[in-house]
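Troubleshooting log. The previous structure file for this entry was overwritten by mistake, so regenerating from the original sequence record. Sequence copied from the archived sheet and checked twice against the printout by T.R.
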Amino acid sequence: MTVRLPRSGAASFFAGLTVAASMPPWGWWPLAFVGIAWFHSISRDASSRRGAFGTGAVFMLGWLLPATAWMWFISAPGWIVACVLFAVLHGIAEAVIWRTRKHAVLQPLAHGLVEALRFSWPFGGVPLASLAISQAQSPVAPVARVVGVIGVTWFVWQLSVSSRTRKRRALALIVLALVVVAAAPTGRPVDGSPEVRVAVVQGGGPQGTRAINTDPRIVHLRHIDVTRRIEPADKVDIVVWPENVVDVADFRASREYGEIAAEAKRLGVPFLVGVTEDAGPGRFTNKQIVVLPDGSIGDEYDKVRRVPFGEYIPMRGVLRAIGAPVDQVPTDAVSGTTRGLLTVPLDKSTISGDNVPEVRVATAISWEIFFAGRVNEGIEDGATLVVNPTNGSSYRGTILQTQQLASSRIRAIESARNVIQAAPTGFSGFVNDGDVVSRTRIGEASVIVSDVPLRTGRTWYSRLGDGPIILVMLVAFGYLISRRSREDDANPTRATRR
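Regenerated output below.
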């Protein structure tokens, strides 16, 4: 016993590392199936409930520690606490299903429900390094059009387990998925198939910087300089700037507003600009603002989903009392209350020659792209494309940036819309039908331009959301667990052996 537990723990950890390697930036997506199948073979042989808990927790540590290592740059203790918290939740899931007859069916349900939980708790949800992100460029990704990321988690886990235990069940799952995905709607072009030419401005500069020690004027001027590379002859219809590259006390009274308005007038097109403004002592807003060609301000959207420990400090007073470095985030973002939509008027024909009076843009600022509901609000309100202005300049490496781009790919599939991502130091890019068609490099100063088709229609997932998927999983899990309890009551000898 004393030898077996460490061996099973080490094997569980390496199985978790295998799943981590399927995540961006590594992106070897087949390893998700290998790692989960390996973990299943270990977990089903756990000799005690405590051992089952340990294998589940250690497996998730192997998965999450490398795949969320970017959190180190926000808070090293917070990174460890988050990984341990979620590892404990997955460990509990394994302990609950220990030695069940339907372990191969219960395990995907149990861990899928835990992943659904961390999409909403704590702090409104921390959907990091989810299983669906690992499949953004795999043949499994279109399943998100039907059941979303939680359904993808269940499908990948169940397929991994079935491919090891019951290959006929795995084949049946694949065939069923192909039939359902083929039948599911994929959206359609807006009448007349109009396109808009969108320019994304990436100012460039170093990574690993924080707002508290960065001159915001320099960041703004980088984006002005790059914007000046765009000429009226380029015939762009919309210009998109990244998240919070304008950091001022009052945007309307700032010289930055005047400089952006001058560029909008020069090009004769609306700008979507990321602005951070003061909102009282110790408070700020993070919004995307439409600046029109005549220099006036149009629609605005305030970010709703704030980044815990990045844009605000939960329990600031308690953490300060125990010596936590809360001054690294000296002010807290004010959460917005509006739906994720910007209306962008166009006063001339688009690049496709169509007269489109306005473009309705589903807007998910930075962190919000990890939450399908934030994008789907705009789709429900008639958005024909999606914009994700973001700012990953605080983090070194590419773990977060690549996972965010993978999440944009999943959102494109779920919503049947093109997604435009704009970041000050990368990655900026265009996603069409879940495929990245253009992308900048980290740190470069660049303008990328693409003709983006406007799309309408709703996928099944867009209409249903996560609720029905979670409900079905809960009912199935509850039924199988209660059935086990009834079997144990009927056969107390077997229950004692467990």
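The radius of gyration is 24 Å. Archived copy saved in two places this time.
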